[in-house]
Every structure is written in C-alpha cells, then in structure tokens.
Amino acid sequence: MPMRYFLLLMSLWLLAPAVAQTPNPAVLRVDSLTTKGSRNGLLLEQGWRYHVGDDPAWARPDFDERGWDTLNPARPRQELPPRLGSGMSWLRLRFRLADSLRQRAVLLQADGYGAWEIYLNGRLVQRAGIVRANPTQVPDPDKLPPVVVPAGGPVEQVLAIRFAPWQSRLLRLGTETQLLDVFLRSEAQVREQAAREVRAAMGSSVVAGIFGLLTLLHLAFFRYYPAQRANLYFAFFAGALALQCLALVIQWALSSPTLEAMLPLLFVRRLLFYLAYLWAVRALYALFGFRPGWVYKGLWLGFFAFVALTLFAKTYAGYVGALLIFLIIAELLRLTGRALRQRQRGAWMVGAGFAVILLFLVVILGAFAVSALLKVPNPLQQAPGGFNTFVSLLLYLSPALGISLYLAREFALDSQLLQVKLTEVEKLSAQTLAQEQDKQALLAAQNETLETQVAQRTGELQRSLTELRATQAQLIQKEKMASLGELTAGIAHEIQNPLNFVNNFSEVSAGLCQEAQELLATAALPAADKDELTDLLRDLEQNQAKITQHGRRAAAIVRGMLEHSRTSPGDRAPTDLNALADEYLRLAYQGLRAKDKTFNAALRTNLAPGLPDVPAVGADLGRVLLNLFGNAFYAVHQRQQAGEAGYAPTVSLSTERVDGHVAIRVTDNGTGMRPAVQAKIFQPFFTTKPSGEGTGLGLSLSYDIVTKGHGGTLSVHSTPGESTEFTITLPV
Fold first, then answer.
1. What DSSP line would sit under 489-524, residue for residue?
2. What digits encode the pLDDT tens for the residues 168-209?
3. Which of 27, 54, 100, 295 could form a disulfide with 88 if both were Cys (CB 3.0 to 4.6 A apart)?
C-alpha cells in the first residue's frame, strides 16, 4: 500500500548506521547490527567501491580496489551512474566486525532486482540467477536464504559481489528503486523477519477469508434486494480486497518464484487495492443516496493515469498513486461527513470505521515526528510484531465492518418495519375475518341446503349426460354401420347377380365338355384329329374348373360382405361374458368336428368367478368369439396335419377383470404368425388361408365390432411356430 511504502521510506530516513570509521577509511567498522533501535539489521551503505566490467580476479581478497569509484548501492537507480544500469559490474566492501560480533555467526542478506554472485573472502557463498549481461529467470530476493558470516573469521573481511541488473520491461511494475541493499543481521533478527512474514501471511489469509464472506453475503443481499445497489458495490469492494490479500498469500507461499512472476502479481495487488476503495466510494454514494459527480469521475481518471504512468513513466507513478489514495480517503470522509450533517440514520457507523483509520494515521505521523524531533527511536518500531499485525488487520477491516454493520442495521430496521406492518395487517385481517365469520354464519345453513340440492341435481345431470353421450355415440356408430352396410350390400348384390351367371354357366359348360368327350369317344374320326380334339376338350374342362373354383371364392367374398353389412337390431344389454364365451367355444368346436370327424383338441377354460355383466350386444360379440375360436381351431388343425411328433392341439379360454375392464383371452398352440402378418390381420380382405377357405373379413369385422361398437380393444400376440393369443378388453 502507498502508506506502507511511505512508512518504509520514513524509517529509512530516520535510521542512521551505527558504524565508526577506522583510521583506514577504506575499511568499514561494524560495532552493532542495529541503528537507533531498529530491529531490521544493519544496512551497509558506506565503504563500497565499484567497477564496470567482469574479471574473476576481482573476487580475490588481496585485490587492490582503491582505484575504483565509491558508491552507495542502496540509493535509487536514477541517482547512480548510468553505466551501472546495464551490463556486468563488481562491488567490493572491506569491513571489520567488532570482537563481540566475531564471536558469533552473522547473517548477510541481499535485496535487489538483478542476478549476482556473492564472494566472502574470495569464496563463492551465494548465486542468485545466472549472471550475464542481460540476466533472465531472476529469482525473488526475498526467497533467497541468508549468507552465513562464520564466527571466528579474519579481522578484516572482504565482500565482493558480481552483479548484473535486471533490465526487463517488467521492472517498472516493482516498488524497489535501489540498485542493491545488503544487510547484516543476527540470527534473531532473521527469525523475527521470517516470523513477521508468517504473521503477515496469516493475517492476509484471515482478511481474505473475512472479505470473501462479506463478498458472498452482500451479493446475496443484492440478489434478494436489488433495489439497494450499495450491496453490489460493497461486494465489489470486499471482493477486490479479498483477491488482493489472496495474492499476497500466494506470493508468500511460492517457494522459489522468479521476478517475471512476482512483479505482475505485485502490480495486480496494487491495482486491486485502488479498485477496492474506488468501489467503496461508489458504495457510499449509493448508500447515502448521493449522485456521483465530477469528483468520482476524476478519481477514476486518476486511477487510469496511475496505471499508465506505472507502465510508461514510473518516476511519477508513486506521486500520483499517493495523491490518488489521499483523494479517495478524503472523498470517503467527505461523503460520511455529509451524511452525518444530514442526520442520516446509521451514518455514524460508517464514520466510526473511517475514524479508526484517521486515529491510527495521526498516531503513526505523531510517532515519526517525535522520533525526528527528539532524535529517539520510533516507538512504533519497538512495538511487538503481533501488535503491528493487529493494527494492520484493524486498518483493513474497520471501514468494511462499519459499512457492513450499517447495511446489516438497515436490513434489520427494514425487517422490523415490515414486522410492524405485518402486525397491523394481521389486526385488520382479524377484524375483517370476524365480520366475514358473522356473515358466513348466516349463510352457512342456506349454503348447505343449496349445496345438497346442487349435488343431487348435478349427479342427475351427470348421469343423464353420460347416458346421452353413450346413446349418441351408439346412434352415430349405428348410423355409420348402417350406411356402410347399405353401401356394402348394394355392391354385393350388384356383384352377386353376374357372379351367379358365371358360376351357373361354368358348371353347365363343364357338363357340356363331359358330353362332348363322350360323343368324341364314339365318333368315327381319324386318330390324330380325335386326339387333338380330346386334348382341347380336356384343357377346356380344366379352364372351366378354374372358373368354377374362383367363382365360388368370389361368391364367398360376396357372402362375407353381406354378413359384414348386416347390423344387429338389438341394443346393448348387460351380458354375462363367461357364459357367452363358453357357449361359443363349444359351438365352434362342434362345428369343426362336424366337418372333420377325425379332429380332436383339448379345451381349457379359466373363467374368473364373479365377473360383472358388461353392456354389450350379445349377437355381435358372439360373432367375434366365433371367428376367434374358428381361427384358433384352424391353426391347431393345420399344425396337427403337419405330423409333428408329440403335438397335442389345445385351445384355451380365460376371462379376468383388470383396472375397470373385462378381458377375454383366446389362446391356441397352433402355427403362430410372423410379425409382418400380425401387422395386417385386421385389414379387410387379408387372409393367410388358401383360396376358397377364407374371405379376410372375419377379423376386420370383429375389430370394428369390439372397438367401434363397444369401445373396447382387440389385440394379438403371437410367436411363430408356437402359439397365438387374442385379447378382447371391454369397459365395465
């Protein structure tokens, strides 16, 4: 954050290195690892010499570098010689540790954007990246382990650093401006620094979790109450801060990242911080009912200017960023103060959140002022690390909690108001209900009487309507069947008359052929002529036989058409299907036995007891059953004639009641039917019997009687070579 960077710069300005020069000004004497109470270690700023170029001999401790130029590598890059900004260079420092420091190990840590090799007394002790003119894959210096300056070393020690600055365009995304910072720290200081990083990561994890929950909470508020758009903007604010803290945790968790990965992540964190507080400004506008004006637009313009300067002119980006955060905080305070002056409900909660930030800013600035004026250590730098972590969490969370409490209070007050309104509505409803109950008490008896009468009349009307619909359907079906019967009868009669002539004259012609053959046998004709005439008469006789056969088939079709057109004069009446089916089963069996005395078949019946009577026309259903039984006996008779060993012809009849219907099943173990035949058997004039044995109208007529005449169904299920089952279902 910009405030964090400001504090760091102020602390660096106040810190003065605790060093004392020896009589040889080329050697730095180190008496202490702290400066003015700072616990961050000793920053080595004096005594450095540098030289541009690369020579391995410059790492040796006996090399004389007094001809090199002096340098403070901790100063910003733009203040250093331009030739240090690219290419290879060496930095050398001679230092002496006090006797108290030489008796224990001292740790050395470097921080900068570049690749380097550190030599201590001529020995390579650390390599960061690949040192070359334009280094790549430069590691994050914060993740490098410290270099150990062992105890009991020489009195005068030589530190040589082979350095190549990182020259990537991503460098402008970072916040470090120095060339290279080199610290001497004790083990306790290094552990404390690591502990601070852990506390910062843990604190960021907590803050990320809290802001993540606030994001989901306010998105839910907006989802169910979209009129309050402040919830949406505050969700954006909390979400941006949650992502920023999450990025810090990711940055801390990465074990060995490169600067190519870390600097963009750092830049994104900075952008999320500014975006979060821009959304906080927008949330306050919506929260207090103020209309955003040119100030708010100017803040967004400043944000885009900061982004552009960071990418293209980093020198001024820090100033613009600090000014932007100052203006954002000023606008937040202005909006809160305006709401307080207007005495808006709950505005003091938001003001309390920002007052915490102001209080800590005053404390921080006062501590720096006291330290600078009185030349004493900064009291904030002496505070425990846990206290600093707590303060950071409070600075992050106080405005968010203030706004959240305000929104929660508004939600609660709206809920209370709604509860009051609901109570009033309930009272009014109770009064209205009491009045209605009085009226209902007066009308209850009349309503019961009317309802009883209406129910009775409705039942009567319903029964009448049902009977009327059934009668109407029956009449329509009868009219259709009568019209079809008349048409079929007329066609059949017209065909029957010429067909009778054909059949009669065919029989007469057959007789004449026989008489001609007899006369030819006694006639005195040459043998060749007689044989030829005999063949002609024989062919003529065969033709007459074919004419007679097909004439009889046509006569059977005509009789079937006349039967199809015949309508039953009776109406539907309750019919005992068990008795009707059993009667026609016996009748069909005896009829087939009369034609062929050698035929026998087993009859099996399974008639459901207590079967209700079904409204039906008995004669029509009898014709259907007679046709089905006849087909069944024909099928078993055909299979019996095939001579199959062990075959026993069987025809079964069963009845049952299923879901408000009565089902009649006729089953045989005859020849069965293929699927292609099953699809056509209910079509008129389709038959599988030989010519002269079937008209193809039996099943068609049966299907019409069951479906159209009685509102039922007729279906078939057959397995070729095994069995066939016809099922009739009729409504009760």
1. HHHHHHHHHHHHHHHHHHHHHHHHHHHHHHHHHHS-
2. 666 666 665 677 888 888 887 778 777 777 777 777 777 778
3. 54
If pLDDT is split at 50, 70 and 90, which confidence band does 385 have?
A: low
At 133, give phi and psi (nearest 5°): -55, -40
Order of all β-strands in the sheet with 661-668:
602-606, 650-658, 661-668, 723-731, 713-719
Global pTM reads 0.47
| Cα–Cα separations (whole angstroms), residue 556 to 283, 565, 594, 627, 698 | 96, 14, 20, 15, 12
336 within 8 A of 284, measured Cβ to Cβ = yes
Residue reference for tokens 């209902």: 440
The CA-CA-CA angle for residues 178, 183, 187, to 5°, reads 150
Distance CA 630, CA 612 (A): 26
Q: What is the CATH number of domain 14-185?
A: 2.60.120.260
CATH dotted code for 194-408:
1.20.1070
Residue 475 has pLDDT above 70, yes or no: no
Q: Which two tokens stand for residue 426?
A: 């309930």
Residue 488: the pLDDT is 66
User: Identity (one letter) of the amino acid at 261?
Assistant: A
Q: What is the pLDDT of residues 436-462, one digit of tens each?
A: 887 887 787 788 888 888 888 888 888
Under 8 Å CB-to-CB from 138, ≥6 apart: which residues?
Answer: 113, 114, 115, 128, 129, 166, 168, 258, 259, 260
pLDDT band at residue 119, thresholds of 50, 70 and 90?
Answer: very high
DSSP state of 407: H
Give Cα separations from 429 to 28, 424, 425 (angstroms).
92, 8, 6
Cα angle: 485, vertex 487, 490; to 5 degrees: 105
pLDDT for residue 387 is more than 80: no
Q: Which residue has the tokens 């100063």?
A: 75
Cβ atoms < 10 Å from Cβ of 569? 8
By C-alpha distance, which of 546, 561, 549 is closest to 685? 561
Tell me the three state secondary structure of residue 261. Answer: helix
When the pLDDT of each residue in the chain is averaged and rounded to a whole number, the result is: 77
Q: Count CB neighbours of 457 within 10 A.
A: 10
pLDDT at 4: 41
Determine the Cα–Cα distance for residues 545 and 535; give it in Å rounded to an integer: 15
Residue 278 to residue 292: CA distance in whole angstroms? 12
Domain ranges of the chain: 14-185, 194-408, 428-458, 480-567, 575-731
- Domain with residues 575-731, CATH architecture: 2-Layer Sandwich (3.30)
